[in-house]
Amino acid sequence: MLGAGVWMLAVHPDDWAGRWAGLVNYLRVSLLILCALMIAAGAWQSGRERRRDIDELIASTPRPGWQPLAVSWLAVTVAGVAGLLVAFAGAAVLVARVATYAGGGWWWTLAVGVLALAAAVAVGVLVGRLVPLRVAAPIAGLATYLGLAIVTYWDGTSAAWLSPVYGGWAVYSLVPGRVTALQAAWLVALTVLLLAAAARQRRAALLAGGLAIAVTVPIITGPGTYRLPADPAAVELVCTSSGPQVCLSRINAFLIDDVIEVVQPILARLDGIPGAPRRAADQAAQPAGQPIDRDDGTVWLNLDYQSTALGGLASRKNLRADFRQVTRARCEDPSGVREIDQRVYRTDTLATDWMLDGAATPDDLPLARLRALPEAGQRSWFAAYLDAAHRCDIPALIRLGEQP
Amino acid sequence: MTTVSVDGLRVSYGKRVVFDDLDLDLGVGVHGLLGPNGAGKTTLMRVLATVLRPDRGDVRLLGHRIDDPAALRQARRQLGYLPQAFGFYPRFTVREFVEYFAWLKEMPPGQIPLAVDRAIERVGLLERADDRMKHLSGGMLRRAGIAQAIVNDPRLLLLDEPTAGLDPEQRVQFRALLRELGLDTVVLVSTHLVEDVVAACTRVNLVDGGRLVFTGLPDELIAAGGDGDSGDSPIERGYTAVLRGARTAPR
Questions:
Q1: What is the secondary structure of A222-259 as a DSSP string?
Q2: How far is B74 from chain A (nearest CA, A)?
Q3: H or E stretch including A356?
Q4: From the CA of B123, how many Å to the nearest CA of chain A?
């Protein structure tokens, strides 16, 4: 589990770096694989007594059968969880250095993840008891992987909450506390049910099964996994006090120095141009479920996967690309389809390159001609472009592209 | 004093009846259990070890009926068992292995460390106590198995082929251990090695074809043999004579 945890963390640091919620959410996403591994481990351990021909010796001892079974389950669970937590503790050290938001109840998300791993081992223990084959462990692991993937990703219905695997939603999304509590109860009941069944403790199995069913009902009749609300404290904006305004949500505020370095020069370049944005803000803070006002002078920055493992900005190029929304011609039909003249795209590219002050290639004559204009002329051209793009004035856009 | 009492025992595997109406009484001391292959020695051991439920019959171990769950648990606390083929966890050390069984036998936790060391010492494995089981030879594994069987100072000790894999010196030491244990314990030793019986057992039981065909002192078994019987030693001749007599006698 240590190796699996390290591997998972190394594959996608942009999913978790710099954010406590991101780290535990990523753990819950990783359960898709980790649960499968734990089930395989539980099945392997459980079948070991039979393979080692030690079951007869154990059967002659007075200790009730559920106790060695519980010890066996606990040993695998503790070992697996400890290995995983060691891996994630390393990541936690990196997160702790830079994180700017520690709320959102991430520890409950973590706790339910641990319960899920314990339940996974219990599944394995039962499989190992029931199926006297060595292949039971790998097959159970594979089946779990597929089953969890189907439950988690099939759709966003509330039944998906029965899977402990998170669907990879945004780090600032807030899973309702009620759902977390029900998931915890469901996983505990499932664990007891499976262990009781493996130990042939009928009464305990019936009780746990009843509890599991009782918990399942409110889960599958509650709201689904789609359109989770944002954590208001996580998306509260933290803004710069000098220079063109840049605002990041609190959960992403650890990136603000790197973001300012990229964004403020662009905003400064656009300062005073009619129709150009005056500020940049974290897309995480956009009001949920409402159309975005593209005319409020704000460039929305997508910072969801914009962190390196050490907490720096992952891609300046992607951040600059967020400014393309400024120059994008609003030529969608009501269905959102854009079918416009290629020359408009070229003008769009010209405007974007000027705005971002990118390096021009020697054969990029339009950009060279634009930059050859006096500063006031360049700004006037860009203002005209924004106006035409706003109105989707195709002839004007083509003309601007040909005569900068 | 009878501490193991079997009355009217019937055991079968499907249609094959292994024992039918077997009676057996064992008191304190070392009891040899002899018999040819397939005679039912291991089946009897498994019944007494409470891992095989008989079809019928009254079995009392140390005064406890084994068909009563509470009494069965009491009996198992005072039971030591070494099956003919016993498994082990290869990554466990000898000490961990014996400790695990001390725990399974519900020994008080405070007594376990000392009891484990004592059991390992009695089988001569103290120097290898921290070796992993997978690194032990066949004879050492057998001794580790005996250590787990005696760790709880059982009042009833069942050993199925305990000397298999032991070298001559270890067998001599083991017989001495058996004699020591037999002073205050019911020890039942199933074996093919009749010389072990002569050397260590106070009484001998011989089963054949699902019947108890002889029970008595080793000297009585020796006396049952004559010069004309096959065998290299007096007890082997007694053994073959008793078997021949049982097989020719009407049932």
A1: S--SSSPPB-TTTT-EEE-SSSSEEEEEGGGGGGHHHH
A2: 7
A3: helix A342-356
A4: 19
Closest Cβ opposite residue B89 in set A52, A60, A62: A52
For chains A and B, count residue pairs whose Cβ atoms are closer than 8 Å.
53
For residue A128, what are its two tokens? 């190992």
CA distance A57 to chain B (A): 7
Question: CA triplet B68, B55, A65: central angle to 5 degrees?
Answer: 45
The owner of tokens 């030591």 is B80
Contact A56 B83 (CB under 8 A): yes
A63 vs B104: CB contact, 8 Å cut-off?
yes
| A285 three-state secondary structure | helix
| pLDDT tens digits, A198-251 | 999 999 999 999 999 999 998 888 777 777 888 888 888 889 888 888 999 999
- What does the alpha-carbon distance between residue A350 and residue A269 come to, in Å, rounded to a whole number? 15
| Distance between CA atoms of residues B53 and B70, nearest Å | 16
Distances (CA, A) of A257 to A246, A250, A252, A303, A321: 10, 13, 11, 13, 18
Cα B151 to Cα A74, A227, B97, B100, B181: the distances in Å are: 25, 62, 11, 10, 12
Residue A59 identity (one-letter amino acid): A
SS3 A299: strand
Across A160-164, A334-338, B134-138, B220-224, least confident range: A334-338
Q: How far apart are CA A298 and CA A56, in angstroms?
A: 73
**ipTM for the complex shown:** 0.89
The domain B1-78+194-251 is placed in CATH, from the list 3.40.640.10, 3.80.10.10, 3.40.50.300, 1.10.540.10, at: 3.40.50.300
- For the segment A167-205, what is each residue's pLDDT rounded down to a tens digit? 777 888 888 888 899 999 999 999 999 999 999 999 999
Condensed to tens digits (0 to 9), the pLDDT of residues A62-76 reads 999 899 999 999 999
Reported as a pLDDT band with limits 50, 70 and 90, residue A372 is confident
- Measured between beta carbons, the chain A residues lying within 8 angstroms of B101 are 57, 61
Best mutation target among B62, B72, B101, B150 (most A Cβ atoms within 10 Å) is B101
B51 vs A48, A52, A56: nearest CB = A56
Q: Under the phi-then-psi rule, with left for phi > 0, alpha for psi from -120 to 50, and beta for the rest, what region is A235?
A: alpha
Q: Chain B residues with CB-CB distance to A under 8 A?
A: 46, 49-51, 72-74, 76-77, 79, 81, 83, 85-90, 101, 103-106, 148
